Amino acid sequence: xxxxxxxxxxxxxxxxxxxxxxxxxxxxxxxxxxxxxxxxxxxxxxxxxxxxxxxxxxxxxxxxxxxxxxxxxxxxxxxxxxxxxxxxxxxxxxxxxxxxxxxxxxxxxxxxxxxxxxxxxxxxxxxxxxxxxxxxxxxxxxxxxxxxxxxxxxxxxxxxxxxxxxxxxxxxxx
Length: 174
Hints:
Strand order of the largest sheet: 1-2-3-8-6-7
Shape: globular
Radius of gyration: 22 Å
Number of helices: 3
Largest sheet: 6 strands, mixed
Low-confidence stretches: 1-10, 14-18, 20-37
Number of strands: 8
Structural class: alpha+beta
Oligomer: single chain
Strand content: 15-25%
Mean pLDDT: 82
Distance between the termini: 37 Å
């Protein structure tokens, strides 16, 4: 087993190389934790997102992920981050779903105008679509508006009336 250093390769026992690798990994982990990096990262650099002020993801999903210059936000409902409960009023709930998306996007330096894709799932298209249009117009203020697909589904998690997932283009700082 070779465990090189500099330009000269030195033959070392496998156990020595393994100890060195474990030590370097431990140092990197401690350094990342001390910098406040709480998100997990895949071998290809995809990083999950869990920004302060966002709702809490429970179970086998994450709020969002950054992959290169794109930020993908999970389907958001109108959950109030302070209480972790659905907002009661339908229009306020729709607004809160968009605000939850914005919180995650802003944590990566994006604004709503950087959104390149919205998929809106609703339980009653006729009743909810006009509210989505109204709230989206208020929050975006002006174009550009992202491409959007709105689909009526039979049932959403917690029998909610809306869930919105989104994609943002946010070039990484070099």
